[in-house]
Design brief:
The chain is α+β, with helices and mostly antiparallel strands and 735 residues long. The protein has seven domains: 206 residues, Hypothetical protein af1432; 140 residues, Beta Polymerase, domain 2, CATH 3.30.460; 34 residues, no CATH class; 60 residues, Ubiquitin-like (UB roll); 73 residues, no CATH class; 81 residues, no CATH class; 75 residues, Alpha-Beta Plaits (2-Layer Sandwich). Helix content is 48%, strand content 16%. The protein has 26 helices and 20 strands. The strands form five sheets. Strands 1, 2, 3, 4, 5 and 6 form a six-stranded mixed β-sheet that branches. Strands 12-16-14-15-13 form a five-stranded mixed β-sheet. A hairpin with a 3-residue loop joins strand 5 and strand 6. Helix 9 packs antiparallel against helix 10, helix 18 crosses helix 20 and helix 20 crosses helix 23.
C-alpha cells in the first residue's frame, strides 16, 4: 500500500479510548465466554486490527473503537449474550475474509454465523438500494434476517455511530445519518420496546439536525435542574412513607423527559418550555410476584389518589391492555404541591425491565393484524415470561417472520415494493403512482404478460404496461385488494366526475349568456336541490354526461326566478364603517370598493389565507371590518349565496414587502431524506420562510403540511414547482 493511500492512524485519544473499551470488554467477556474462547479470540482480534484491517472506515471513524463500543453498548442496554457479542466482534473480520464460515462454525457455532450472515445481508441491501422507502426497508430487514437479534444489532450499531459523529466535519452526511436514525432506527427500537435507545436516538437526531433548538432546551433544563430536583424530592417523600406503611417493596425514580419529547410537545401544543407542565415523571417500581402485579399497581395508585387530586383525562392504563410491543405501565397525572401537574408511572420490576431494555417486548410490525399474529405475540409472551433461560437465548428459536400476509415484489430497476398478500397487478400499479395505476392495462411479470387481476407472488419482477387512452373504471374496485388502491381509484373516478361537471357547468353558463340570463347562485342552488341533487357537482356531472339538457333546465330556472320576490338590499358601497384599526391592516396593499374608501379596516380570512396577487373579494363582517377572501375560498360560495349585499370589491394596489403565510400540502414516498430535501429548497428560496411543518406517515407514504411565508403568489407558484421536482414527491398543492 502506498503511503499516500494508507489510512490515517488513530489519535492518542482514540487509541486510549479503544484500549479502555478493550479492557472493559475483556472483563465483561470473562463472565460470558469460556477461557479457551477468550484465549483464541483476543490475539485474533489484536492481529486483525493491528495489521489486516484499516484503522478507519470510509468516514474516518475508528473501526476497532466502533466495534468494541457496539459490543459494550449491547451488554449495557440490552443483554450480555454470548452469541451476539461474538457476532458483533467477528463480523468486521468475516467481512474482509480474515475468518471464514468454517472457522466460525467450528469455534463459535452455526448460530453466530447465522447472525453474521444476517447482518451482512441486510447491510448489502442497504448499501445497494438506498432509495427504498423506510417502511419497505424495515420489512425487508426482517424478511432477510429471520432473526430479531440482527435487527437489535443494527439498531445498536446506529446508536454507536450517532454517539461518534458529534464533531464530524461532513455536516451533510451527519444530517443524513441523524435523519435515518430518527425515522428508521428509532422507530424500530420503539417497536421492539427498546425505549431507552429510542429516546437517545431521537435526542441525538435533534441535536444534529436542529442544534440551536437542542442547545436552547438543554440550557433551560439545566438552569431549572436544582429547583426541579428539589420539587421531585418533596413530592416523593410523602408517597414513599405511604408505600412503606403498606409494606410495599419498591423503588422510586424521578426523571426529566427527553429533549426530543419536550420539543415535540412544544410544537404540538404551540407553547414555550414553561408551558409544558409534565417536564418530568415519577416512576414507582414495585417488587411483587407475577400474580400480584395488577392489584399491587392499582393499590399503589389508590394511595397516590388519596394524597393528590388525579386528572382522569390523562389516565393511561397499559396494565390491563398492554401496548402492542409489550409495554406495561399505569400512568396517572395528579396535581402536586404548588398546583403543578405531575405524571406518576406505576410498574413492577418485570415491567420496568421490558420498558427499559425491551428484553421481553413483543415484536409487532406496524399494520400486522389478524388472529395468527395475535397468537404469535401470545406465544412469545408465554415463552419469555415462563422460561428459565434468558430472553435473548430464547428469541433465536422464535419464528420471527410476521410478514406471512405480505409479499415483496421488484420493479425492473430492482426497487423493492411491499404489498399485502393477494395484491394484484392493479394494486402494484397504484402503489407506484396514481397516474400509473389510472393508465394501467396489464403487466409483464417475470417476462410474461399478465392481466390486471393477476395475483403478485413473492420475488416477482413486475413491469407495468400503460396506455394514454386507459381510464379507471368502477369495476376496478372489485379487482384491487389494498385500501390505498381502492381510495386512489375512487379519487380518479371523482376527478372524472369533476371534469364532466366542468363541462356541464360551462354548457349551462354558455346557454345563459346566449339568452342574456344572469345566473343567481342562491336561486340556482335552491333549484338544484329541488331537482333531487344533494351536491351541485353531481348535478353538473349529469349535465356534462348529457343526462340533463341545459336548455330545458335554463327554462325551469327562468320560471323559478320570475316567481321569486327579490328583496331590496343595501349596497356595500353605502355601508358606513366605524371600527378601530387592526394589526392586519396595511393600507398600501389593498384598494377596497369601486373607489378607495378611507378609514376602512380589513383583515385576511384565515379560512383561505390570501396572499399578494390572489384574486380576492371583501366581505363586511357584523363589526364593520372587511374580511378579505380568495375568490376560490371554500366558504366563498356560501358567503355569496347568503350575504350578497355584504360583498365589496377588493384589489391589490401596491407591492408589499411583507411576508404572508401560505399552507402547502405535500404528499410523497416516505423516503429517507425527502423531508430534508423539501425544507432545503424552501430555505434556499430568497424571501421564503418556513414557519411550521407537520408530517404524518402511513404505509410507506407521508403527508406533510408546511406553513411558508412568501411575498406573493408568484413566488409560491415557483416554490411549488421546485418542491414537485424532489424525488419521491407525488404532489404539492396550496391549501
Amino acid at each position: 500500500m502506498n503511503e499516500s493511500n494508507a489510512p490515517l492512524k488513530l489519535t492518542y485519544t482514540e487509541l486510549k479510548e479503544t484500549l479502555e473499551r478493550a479492557r472493559q470488554l475483556h472483563e465483561l467477556a470473562a463472565g460470558i465466554l469460556t477461557p479457551a474462547e477468550l484465549e483464541e479470540l483476543e490475539p485474533l482480534m489484536r492481529d486483525a486490527y493491528r495489521n489486516r484491517i484499516d484503522s478507519r472506515d470510509f468516514k474516518n471513524l475508528p473501526i476497532a473503537r466502533q466495534t468494541l463500543t457496539g459490543a459494550l453498548t449491547f451488554a449495557e442496554m440490552v443483554d450480555p449474550d454470548r452469541n451476539i457479542l461474538l457476532a458483533i466482534m467477528l463480523q468486521p473480520l468475516h467481512r474482509v475474509g480474515i475468518v471464514s464460515d468454517d472457522y466460525i462454525k467450528q469455534h463459535c457455532g452455526e448460530d453466530v454465523l447465522g447472525l453474521i450472515n444476517g447482518i451482512e445481508a441486510v447491510s448489502r441491501f442497504s448499501n445497494r438500494n438506498n432509495a427504498t422507502n423506510q417502511e419497505n426497508f424495515r420489512g425487508l430487514m426482517l424478511a432477510l434476517a429471520h432473526d430479531i437479534r440482527v435487527i437489535i444489532i443494527m439498531i445498536l450499531q446506529n446508536l454507536v455511530l450517532m454517539r461518534s459523529i458529534n464533531l464530524h466535519p461532513d455536516d451533510q452526511w451527519v444530517r443524513n445519518v441523524a435523519f435515518e436514525a430518527n425515522y428508521l432506527y428509532a422507530q424500530l427500537a420503539h417497536r421492539l420496546g427498546l425505549y431507552k435507545i429510542k429516546g437517545e436516538l431521537e435526542d441525538l437526531s435533534l441535536k444534529y439536525t436542529n442544534r440551536e433548538i437542542y442547545v436552547q432546551i438543554a440550557h433551560k433544563l439545566n438552569a431549572t435542574k436544582r429547583a426541579r430536583d428539589q420539587y421531585i424530592k418533596e413530592f416523593i417523600e410523602p408517597l414513599r412513607e405511604k408505600l412503606s406503611h403498606e409494606d410495599f417493596t419498591f423503588e422510586i425514580k424521578g426523571r426529566t423527559k427527553s429533549i426530543s419529547s419536550i420539543w415535540n410537545k412544544m410544537r404540538k401544543q404551540k407553547v414555550d418550555l414553561p408551558g409544558i407542565y409534565d417536564l418530568f415523571a415519577i416512576r414507582v417500581i414495585i417488587d411483587t410476584p407475577l400474580e400480584r402485579e395488577k392489584p399491587d399497581c392499582w393499590k399503589a395508585y389508590a394511595l397516590l389518589a388519596d394524597m393528590y387530586t388525579a386528572n382522569p383525562a390523562r389516565m393511561r392504563d397499559w396494565i390491563t391492555i398492554p401496548k402492542s410491543n409489550g409495554y406495561e405501565s399505569l400512568h396517572a397525572t395528579v396535581m402536586g404541591p404548588g398546583n403543578k401537574w405531575v405524571e406518576v408511572q406505576f410498574r413492577t420490576r418485570r415491567m420496568d425491565l421490558v420498558a427499559e431494555k425491551g428484553l421481553a417486548a413483543h415484536w409487532r410490525y406496524k399494520g400486522v393484524k389478524g388472529d395468527s399474529s395475535d397468537q404469535w405475540m401470545a406465544n412469545i409472551r408465554d415463552i419469555l415470561e415462563t422460561a428459565e433461560a434468558g430472553p435473548m437465548q430464547l428469541m433465536r428459536n422464535i419464528n420471527l417472520d410476521p410478514f406471512g400476509k405480505e409479499v415483496f415484489a421488484f420493479s425492473p430497476k430492482g426497487d423493492l415494493f411491499r404489498l399485502s398478500a393477494g395484491a394484484t397487478v392493479l394494486d402494484f400499479a397504484f402503489h407506484i403512482h396514481t397516474n400509473v395505476g389510472a393508465r394501467c392495462t396489464g403487466a409483464i411479470v417475470n417476462g410474461a404478460h399478465k392481466k390486471l387481476n393477476y395475483t403478485i407472488h413473492n420475488g416477482d419482477t413486475v413491469e407495468i404496461l400503460t396506455s394514454a387512452n386507459q381510464e379507471p373504471r368502477l369495476e376496478w374496485l372489485q379487482i384491487v385488494k389494498s385500501a390505498r388502491a381502492r381510495n386512489k381509484i375512487k379519487q380518479c373516478l371523482n376527478e372524472q366526475k369533476q371534469r364532466l361537471a366542468d363541462i356541464g357547468k360551462e354548457a349551462l353558463m354558455r346557454r345563459a349568456k346566449n339568452r342574456k340570463v344572469d345566473i343567481d347562485e342562491a336561486v340556482l342552488m335552491r333549484l338544484i336541490k329541488k331537482q333531487g341533487y344533494k351536491f351541485a357537482l353531481e348535478f353538473y356531472a349529469d349535465m356534462g354526461d348529457n343526462k340533463i339538457d341545459p336548455g330545458r333546465f335554463l327554462n325551469t330556472y327562468i320560471e323559478e326566478t320570475s316567481r321569486e320576490h327579490v328583496e331590496e338590499k343595501t349596497s356595500a358601497e353605502n355601508f358606513t364603517i366605524i371600527t378601530p384599526e387592526r394589526e392586519e391592516q396595511s393600507n398600501d396593499v389593498l384598494t377596497i370598493g369601486e373607489k378607495t374608501i378611507n378609514g376602512l379596516s380589513y383583515r385576511f380570512a384565515r379560512c383561505c389565507n390570501p396572499i399578494y396577487g390572489d384574486d380576492v373579494f371583501g366581505f363586511i363582517t357584523s363589526d364593520g371590518t372587511v374580511k378579505i377572501h380568495k375568490n376560490n375560498c371554500p366558504n366563498a360560495e356560501n358567503i355569496r349565496s347568503r350575504y350578497p349585499y355584504r360583498l365589496i370589491n377588493a384589489t391589490w394596489s401596491g407591492k408589499t414587502g411583507d411576508i404572508m403565510p401560505a399552507t402547502i400540502r405535500v404528499i410523497g414516498n416516505d423516503d429517507i431524506g425527502i423531508v430534508a430535501n423539501i425544507t432545503g429548497i424552501i430555505s434556499h428560496e430568497p424571501g421564503a420562510v418556513l414557519r411550521n411543518i407537520s408530517i404524518d406517515s402511513n404505509d410507506g407514504m407521508f403527508q406533510g403540511f408546511l406553513v411558508v411565508g412568501v411575498t406573493d403568489n408568484r413566488q409560491l407558484t415557483a416554490l411549488l414547482k421546485k418542491i414537485k421536482t424532489v424525488k419521491g414527491v407525488k404532489d404539492a398543492v396550496r391549501m
